[in-house]
Amino acid sequence: MEKNSETGNYNWMGVSTFFDHQMASNYSSLPSIFDMSSNDHGDQQRGSLGFMDLLGIQDFSPSLFDMIQQPLSAQSPPPPPPPVSETSEVTNLPATPNSSSISSSSNEATTDEHVRVSEEKEQEKPKQGSKPKKKTEKRQREQRFAFMTKSEVDHLEDGYRWRKYGQKAVKNSPFPRSYYRCTSATCGVKKRVERSSDDPSMVVTTYEGQHTHLSPVMSRGSSAGISAGSGSFSTDFAFGSTMQNHYQQQQQQQQQQQPYFYSLPPNNSVNYSTTTTSTSPSHNLDHHERRFCTSAASLLTDHGLLQDIVPSDMRKDE
DNA sequence: CGTATTTGACCGGCGC
DNA sequence: GCGCCGGTCAAATACG
C-alpha cells in the first residue's frame, strides 16, 4: 500500500458544480457522459464524470485512499492518527458529507457529488504481475489523481472506455475496490473505484497515469462539449481537453501554475451555495462538488479562477 | 464471435 | 522469514 508519508502536504481546492438533468439532456450528443441513471447492464449503473477524463490525469496523487484512511495526517506533519473515520472528509468539506445535503440526492437519477482530489507525484511502478521487471528499481507509480464523488453509481462515466481487470475486497471496508484499465491499447491509464466505508454514498476514484489519446467522446463530439459553455459538464469537457495539453506542457517545462482547474462558463454551473444548501430536499438539481488536492504549491498561491469560484473557507490549505 | 466482466490465483511490498 | 494485503493476471463466463 502506498504511503502518504512522502506526500506531505496536500492542498485542497474545492470546486463544486451542479448538474441538472435538463442541461444534461442538452448534451445528448455526449450520451455516456451524462448517462448517470441509465443502467448499463441491468444492474450496473453508470455515473458521469465529465471532467475527469479529460483531466488527462496527469500528475497527481497520493491516493485518496490515504487521505480517507488517514485523513488529516497528510496535511498535518505530525500525523496523529485519529481514530477517526471520516472526519477528514468532513473536515475538508465545506459541508459535511453527511449533513450535507447532498447526501440526500434528491433525485435518484441524479447524483450529488462531493469530490476530493488528491494530487501526488508518484514514482512509476513497474507493472507487477507475474513477470518481475527491474526489481532493483524502486517501484514507481504513475501519477495519480484521486477524488471523491457522491454518487449512487460506482463507475462514473468519464468519457473514456475502461475495462475492468480486477476487484478486491478492501480491508476495513465492506465495499470492494474495482480496478479498471483504459481500453486503448497504447494507453496505460488505470483507475480504481471504491466506495468509502465511512460514507457509502461517496465513491472514491483514483486515476493513475495519463491518457495518450483523446477520449472517445471528445473525438466524437468535442465541439459540442467545448463550445457549449453553459453547463458544468461542458466545462468539464473543456477543462479536460485543455488540461491534457496543459499538463503536457507542464511536464515539459515544469512550471506553471495557473490552476487551470475549471474554466467556468459565464453563467454559473458552478454554484457553491448549492453545496451547502443542497440539504434542502426539494432541490431539483444534482450537485457535484469536486475537491482537488494538489501538492503543487504553486497552484495554491495563485488561485486564479478558483479564487472566484471557491469559497475561502474551502481553501483550507491556505 | 468479439468484447467485457468475474473471480481465484499469483506476485511483490511491507510490517512484525 | 512469515503473513497480510494491495494489485494484477488470466481463464472462465456472460453478454450483445
Automatic annotation (TrEMBL):
Gene3D superfamilies: WRKY domain (2.20.25.80). Belongs to the WRKY group II-c family. The keyword DNA-binding applies. It is found in: Nucleus. Transmembrane segments: none annotated. Residues 70-147, 243-288 are annotated as: Disordered. Its main location: nucleus. Residues 111-127 have a biased composition (Basic and acidic residues). Residues 85-98 have a biased composition (Polar residues). Residues 151-216 form the WRKY domain. Residues 248-258, 265-282 have a biased composition (Low complexity). Residues 128-138 have a biased composition (Basic residues). GO terms for molecular function: DNA-binding transcription factor activity; sequence-specific DNA binding. It comes from Macleaya cordata. PROSITE patterns: WRKY. Keywords: DNA-binding, Nucleus, Transcription, Transcription regulation. One of its GO terms (cellular component) is nucleus. InterPro entries: TF_WRKY_IIc (IPR017396), WRKY_dom (IPR003657), WRKY_dom_sf (IPR036576), WRKY_plant (IPR044810). This is WRKY transcription factor.
